[in-house]
Amino acid sequence: MLLDSLRRESTIYLLERRGDGFEGGACGGVMGVDGSERRRRDLRWKGSDDKRNTKVALLRFHSLPSKHARGTVPSCPPSSICIARWPYLIAKAKEGGLDVIQTYVFWNVHEPIQGQANILIVEYSQYDFRGRFNLVRFIKQVQAGGLYVSLRIGPFIQSEWKYGTQRNQSLQCDSYATLTAVRGTNEGFRSGCMTFQASSFALIMKLSRQFHMQKYVTKIVEMMKSERLFASQGGPIIITQIENEYENVEAAFAERGPSYVRWAASMAVGLGTGVPWMMCKQSDAPDPVINTCNGMKCGETFSGPNSPKKPTLWTENWTQRYQVYGEDPRPRSAEDIAFAVALFIAKKNGSFVNYYMYHGGTNFGKSASSYVTTSYYDQAPLDEYGLIWLPTWGHLRELHAVIKLCQEALLWGRYTYYSLARLQEAHLFRTNSGKCAAFLVNYDKALAANLHFLDAIYELPAKSISILPDCKKTAFNTAKVS
Hints:
2 domains; glycosidase; 20 strands; eight-stranded mixed beta barrel; alpha/beta; Glyco_hydro_35_CS; beta-galactosidase activity; signal; TIM Barrel; single chain; disordered N terminus; EC 3.2.1.23; five-stranded antiparallel sheet
């Protein structure tokens, strides 16, 4: 069962941030259930044999990756000052209706000196978890703030970060040819370096479990275990991620691509965290790893999990698009973000949404990838400096509060779909005890609509969703910003 150890009945929202204080992170949302009292139930289409995805202990709302060296000034003060901002950002996330902090773990931040590997020397590594790079301290502060944690280990994370954090580990090799394929089913990525000499390759195969990718992932997992930070140990980490959007390049490796995916999944699951693993944008993620969606419109584009045993998760709901030098900002309206979130929950049976980003930050030094600006997601709900960005922050806060009012119907209710017109529809959830919630959808981008639903008429603005926590009264409309 997903999240066996989650024992709180509440909706959890994740937040990813880059700014002051922590290296990488995303915040989103997850809905928890009282696991000691309730069990999962299959939800079926009323009047249909089609089975919807099983609802589990996750709900929805996520945000963006954050990074350690972030501050409100060009250079970060001593680490204690940066660390001092962590509680503020965590509190703002919770105040915004989020219940989970999702964070990336930046490989080249924590292992700045590459593990040395050659035919005779097994390995040597120097890790850095000091000061503002103190991953354990950050996670414990999130827990102290009353939130859960979603940990994206990677080790490739993209995040518009130089080489996706893999520069030292994957592009520098002592005794072997520099990798031409950074991520593939070769022992270069798994074990350190790749050689095209068959005699050496066999030895690399033997040493592979000791080297870079698995060594690093194992290092992070064992560190979390030693501090009892996984939910299975009573800690705040409820879900973890291996790899990142690998499917975008998988075809380039032919038959080696799927083989690598299976290896990475098996390796991660074998570490025994006691919490679920996910792969974002990886439709062939092998059981029990959960395949998830990234993008702006997962309520419309996501084909769903690749097994009925898996929940529907949205790991990156982009709150804008990152900016490159010479390009105009590409903001995203609060109304559009809210529409996408509500649709994903109602139509896709969504059980997790991460806002990417909820808090952006600053790319100092040479940390950003090519042409990416210093400011990162400056128009996220919390801007580059951690200040509230209105109306986005407030509008999403209201959305989160209303969805929490619907949580019992969403988790335990039977689902019914209503086609009201060509561009209008309704999604209803009703429990046996009578708890009811409805989502009325108007897809028309130009015209408002009057919808007849359950013997009442509801007026919806163009491209909007009205949420009725009792199936009677509209408590929130995605297009109406207060």
